[in-house]
Amino acid sequence: MTETNLDATATVDARGAACPGPLMDLIGKIRDVESGDVVRLLSDNEQSLTDVREWTEEAGNDLLEVEEADDHYEFYVEKA
Amino acid sequence: MTDHVVVVGGGTGGTVLANDLAERLEPELAAGDVRVTIVTDDPDHVYKPVWLYVPFGQREPADGRRPLTELVDDRVDVRIDRVTGIDTDAQRLESRDGVAPSEYDYLALATGSTLAPDEIPGLAEGGHDFYSESGSETLREELLSFTEGHLVLSVVGTPHMCPAAPLEFVFMADDWFRKRGLREDVDITYTYPIQRVHGNPHIAEWARPRMDDRDIAVETFFNAESVDPDGQTMATMEGDELDYDLLVAIPPHRGIDLIEEAGLGDRGWVDVDKETLEAEAAENVYALGDTADTGVPNAGSVAHYQAGVVGQRLASELRGRPATATYDGKTLCFIETGMDAASFVEFDYEHPPSPAPPSQKIHWAKLAYNESYWLTARGLL
């Protein structure tokens, strides 16, 4: 179970997607939302822990939180 | 009672599947126990890999077109129409002209990819592509007369058809300009959305040093947000700008709206079991090729192998036997590394690719396969 209280505008469920699927999916969703919106990415790929952080820093978006659930991670990214 | 299998889409996946079923279900088709219909709105079958060669003046778009009826087994009913609605509960179809069947017992969706350049402001006006017949012809006009300046190949949308093709294009362009003595006057830049030059890390690791050796500049974490056709500049989500003189882009791709409207998946890609290729949201519905959201490359070889799996599974189901055939992620790609050399990769869900050393023989093998592709479409190779 996750404990965050963050509200996400949109959720991308990339569980089961091989690298780099989750990051690609996140980028696609960030394109679709407005500045200030929060996207929640669900990924069970370990590589996402570095990929998502690197890209959000590069793109100037905020990685608000990373939650570890039973079998996946939940990334909360706010679009700059 | 006759069971009716309807295949929607006349590309590689749909055509190979229809021919596979005609062969596999020969007794049932002869007895009238099974019917197989393929529905497509294009009377021609189009072999898209030809388009990579069009901008370099080496092939014509017509080389990639043949009438579908010449390729599909006579035991398959070919209907030229566009399916406009799917009711997966009632197992019914709506169509534009009423020529397509209105009911199915089993449905196989192979509706493929479409280009969506309009998702990026300015891209349609400012960029070129080799992912369509018209795009490759227009790009040819530009490229053949391009003798100096900055050529930018930008992968904008993923997933996209033939993931190796953007790398092939810059390797071919590099070699092509060198052979013509123009390379010193042409800068080439390749951009990719993530932190490496290809989605697959093994292919990226193989390609990157070759790009460096050949003076192909690379921009990673590069996601185009807009294109200014007048200023000839791209702006990215990461806050960067890049000037170009000739922009060749891989536009965003979508499946067709029909899929999302039927509740089968987002952006026109059907959510499927990665091994059985059965739709997750409906009974008696399969998807294959680009349409199936499996995470493997959108490539003709994938559609070809998946067609064999779906054919076997459908035959099992129609015969009342357990369906055991599964797709293992098998993918096969030739990768051009110049105008007369190529590499080759083969991989699946469990085994990563290991690109073969580039050679002229592999390049010839790719050209030979492009010619013999028509045997694949007919289900013979």
From TrEMBL, chain A:
<protein>
    <submittedName>
        <fullName>Sulfurtransferase TusA family protein</fullName>
    </submittedName>
</protein>
<dbReference type="Pfam" id="PF01206">
    <property type="entry name" value="TusA"/>
</dbReference>
<keyword id="KW-0808">Transferase</keyword>
<dbReference type="GO" id="GO:0016740">
    <property type="term" value="F:transferase activity"/>
</dbReference>
<feature type="domain" description="UPF0033">
    <location>
        <begin position="12"/>
        <end position="36"/>
    </location>
</feature>
<dbReference type="InterPro" id="IPR001455">
    <property type="entry name" value="TusA-like"/>
</dbReference>
<dbReference type="InterPro" id="IPR036868">
    <property type="entry name" value="TusA-like_sf"/>
</dbReference>
From TrEMBL, chain B:
<feature type="domain" description="FAD/NAD(P)-binding">
    <location>
        <begin position="4"/>
        <end position="307"/>
    </location>
</feature>
<protein>
    <submittedName>
        <fullName>FAD-dependent oxidoreductase</fullName>
    </submittedName>
</protein>
<dbReference type="InterPro" id="IPR052541">
    <property type="entry name" value="SQRD"/>
</dbReference>
<dbReference type="Pfam" id="PF07992">
    <property type="entry name" value="Pyr_redox_2"/>
</dbReference>
<dbReference type="GO" id="GO:0016491">
    <property type="term" value="F:oxidoreductase activity"/>
</dbReference>
<dbReference type="InterPro" id="IPR036188">
    <property type="entry name" value="FAD/NAD-bd_sf"/>
</dbReference>
<dbReference type="InterPro" id="IPR023753">
    <property type="entry name" value="FAD/NAD-binding_dom"/>
</dbReference>
